[in-house]
Amino acid sequence: DNMAVECVGYLLEELRNDEALEQFKIDVADANVFIGSLIFVQELAEKVVEVVEPLRDQLDAVLVFPSMPEVMRMNKVGSFTMKNLGQSKSVVADFMKKKKQED
């Protein structure tokens, strides 16, 4: 059996550029896995969620750590999900609330 792996990466700030955002949409639609990290700028977090959330169910895995709660809620690996992040008492939720208050 043969296997091919392609990894496409973006600096978060690139998503402010309309052309880069359109390419990001194409790349996520073609992806099997989405990995994100350090997404703490509200405007950019919203763009990532807008692109990834509609495709979440077709992705094999979504891994986002650490980032704003709305982005981390998209996490899924198999049956593991973080959709309820921030809606109950947890160490992760407390950390994220503290981080958001600091910003």
From TrEMBL:
It comes from the Eukaryota. It is an enzyme of class 6 (ligase). It catalyses: protoporphyrin IX + Mg(2+) + ATP + H2O = Mg-protoporphyrin IX + ADP + phosphate + 3 H(+). Residues 4-102 form the Magnesium chelatase subunit H N-terminal domain. Pfam families: DUF3479. Pathway: Porphyrin-containing compound metabolism. GO terms for molecular function: ATP binding; magnesium chelatase activity. Its EC number is 6.6.1.1. InterPro entries: CobN/Mg_chltase, Mg_chelatase_H_N. Belongs to the Mg-chelatase subunit H family. Keywords: ATP-binding, Chlorophyll biosynthesis, Ligase, Nucleotide-binding, Photosynthesis. It comes from Attheya septentrionalis. GO terms for biological process: chlorophyll biosynthetic process; photosynthesis. This is magnesium chelatase.
